[in-house]
């Protein structure tokens, strides 16, 4: 962690939707992450503090929180880069129900993946030969551009459309649909386009790119959603949606 560098003033959300920010003082150290600070507060000041984490190395996404107003992975966010005058404000992700303190209920986030039909539905059986997909094809490259989403919900929390239209499917679910629409092995592309063409679907996106700006994996959900808009439009011209 490095040498002692003074103290941090840390405001952390406590309670549910009707909770409030509680201020703690924590040691400021070299190379510490925001997750290190939350863990220190839980271990030394507030044993009942609720939050989530697992891998600590930016692979699981479960430690996502709102840090000084922006959604971030706390395990990969260094205090030195975000603290303002040695002050931090740490809150749960926006646009999700709060279970307690910094822990959110992810149910609605995953339900929207289901509603968007964000699951692979292949046509081959175990008896068929494995289909080879050439990596240089445009469809495969479109899949590669969006496939690394790990469901952390940072983009969902950053999305202003979700904030004012809670039934909107959101950038993560729509990005997943775009990868499936470009998977030549998938057999449910028409049904999937119909699922994202409705009132809660892709045309609600305002292309403000909050999802792209905040994605810790450097994905571009805005571009994926734009691709879906084009695909839905073409399907509508053909009378398929």
Overview of this protein structure:
This protein starts with a strand and ends with a helix. The protein has helices spanning 34-44, 79-82, 107-115, 138-146, 154-158, 160-164, 171-181, 189-196, 210-214, 221-237; strands at 4-14, 20-29, 64-67, 70-73, 87-91, 98-100, 103-104. Helix 4 (138-146) packs antiparallel against helix 7 (171-181) and helix 7 (171-181) crosses helix 10 (221-237). It has 2 domains: 4-104, Beta-grasp domain (Ubiquitin-like (UB roll), Roll); 107-237, Alpha-helical ferredoxin (Fumarate Reductase Iron-sulfur Protein, Chain B, domain 2), CATH 1.10.1060. The radius of gyration is 20 Å and the shape is elongated. The longest helix is centred in the last third of the chain and has 17 residues, at 221-237. The protein has 10 helices and 7 strands. It has 241 residues and is α+β, with helices and mostly antiparallel strands. A hairpin with a 2-residue loop joins strand 3 and strand 4.
